[in-house]
Amino acid sequence: MTGARSIRPDAMNAAPPGAAQAVRGESAVGNPILVGVRGLPPVVADGVRGWLRRDLRVVPVRLGTKAGVVVLDPTYEAASVAPGDRAVAFSPVSTAEAATELMAYGVRAVVPQSRHRRHLIEAIVAVSAGAVPDMSCRTIGQPCPVPRLSDRERMALVWWLRSMTKASVARRMGVSPHTVDMYIKRIRAKYAVAGYAVPTKADLLARAIEDGLVGPEEVLAGPVIG
Hints:
single chain, Arc Repressor Mutant, subunit A, 5 strands, about 40% helix
């Protein structure tokens, strides 16, 4: 045909871009993250696997296959986070108490089931890389509620952020270190419900100051002996 571009015979059988990586278990954007999906209601698990298949960065794997990241709801039936799992909780979280339970199971991130597909995948990618997922409500365009702390929670937070150990905070407050630990877990849980991941003391310090829960002068005055 006049003006038609000639096509090399071998090009007719050439694989599309990225096909070779797919055959080798890789994607065009690099090695995909192997994601195990378990401990979810069947319809939810199927939906999550469908989401994962639509993104080149992640690949759902069969049960029993070693996965880089696990997606589950630790509160569903017999689901559990195994030692060493990089787990993302995908759960119908709506209260601080529920988030506290999830964090206590050892998950690295919490994604409410009401969130969009991209928020789950972003959390998976971040957890796989060892980073803190950005689940900020500002990122997803929702109002950003500031957690409400009890007087005891706020007191424990201030002393702990001033470089005190939890044991020292416990002595000052007249409670056990376990109680102080629970105060801090509750605060992190409240932030998780608000859409923030604050796994480290530095993360919690920055977030609490920005939200006005503590004043810089309260926590930046240096360590307290006691």
